[in-house]
Amino acid sequence: MPASQLPTFLDLPARSSKPRKTGITHILDKGSTTNDVQAILESAARYIDVWKFGFGTSYVDPTAPAKIALLKAAGIKTCTGGTLLEIAWLRGRTEAFFEFAAERGFDCVEVSDGATDIPFHDKLALIERANALGFEVLSEIGSKDPTKRLTSVEWVSQLETDAQAGARWIVIEGRESGTVGLYDEYGKIRNDILHAVTRSRFVDKLIFEAPQRAQQAFLIREFGPEVNLGNILVDDVISLETLRLGLRADTLQLLADVDREGRRVVHA
Fold it and tell me: Which of 8, 143, 185, 225 is such that its CA lies 20 to 30 A from the CA of 95?
């Protein structure tokens, strides 16, 4: 069997192929080198959909353009970190930010208000401006501050408003720690929030930040292998795919509970 061809002797849940509309894997890059990127692409390019240059890393990394070129060649969309745009907004430099993102070759921008107090009308204006400039918008909802807890009604209101403003994806905050936003301080999912956002008419736009293995496994067991997951660390891409396919103890039951089209089967 050629090295690039995967085995087929197991009857596994179906996974959509790229370009995907479901089963998105969204990477958080906290400062990988070009050698790191080349290495992970050799084994995992087929599993990665969006590569986010976390926070302000693209601003200080002189190799960012080379990394973006590698990712584009592999069919992976590149995204700025939301914090960088928030800082640009604070300094009155949002147009300069968009020029920077375009010059670097980013496909997507993340619009967030989790680190600052951007008024909702300013956030919506940023979403609309990014769309007008041709960027695919990932709008993040939820605060990075663990003391700021939105109600389920506020979560749904924000995600629906952002989607109506033109966001392609709505990112549910979890941060790289997995202890804020959708999660409590111990990394456990806040079920009231999860149930509220997944009842929204824009549920197909949701990407759940899930940096911890237990969070990934829970969401896969709950929604099946085609759930959209974000803030996945670079070194965890392959292990996440084994979770999606029931090739790890945490999701082994998927082999019995998911049909060949990747849909979760609910047993009576």
Answer: 143
Report the C-alpha gap between 66 and 34 in whole angstroms: 7
Q: Give residue-wise pLDDT tens across range 67-109.
A: 999 999 999 999 999 999 999 999 999 999 999 999 999 999 9
Total Cβ atoms within 10 A of residue 128: 15
The Cβ-side half-sphere exposure at 112, using a 13 Å CA radius, reads 29
Q: How many alpha carbons lie under 13 Å from residue 157 in its C-beta half-sphere? A: 6
Please list the residues that pair with 169 across neighbouring strands: 138
- The encoded tokens of residue 165 equal 């403003």
Domains and CATH numbers, the chain: 25-257 (3.20.20.70)
Largest Cα–Cα distance of the chain, in whole Å?
57
104, 84 contact by CB (below 8 A): no
Instruction: For residue 137, give the 3-state DSSP assignment.
Output: strand
Cβ atoms 49, 244 nearer than 8 A? no
CB burial of residue 123 (10 Å; 0-12, 13-18, 19+): buried
What the block records as the tokens of 254 is 């998927």
Type and span of the H or E element at 239: helix 237-244
Tell me the pLDDT tens digit for each residue of 106-145.
Answer: 999 999 998 888 999 999 999 999 999 999 999 999 888 7
pLDDT tens-place string over residues 218-246: 999 999 999 999 999 999 999 999 999 99
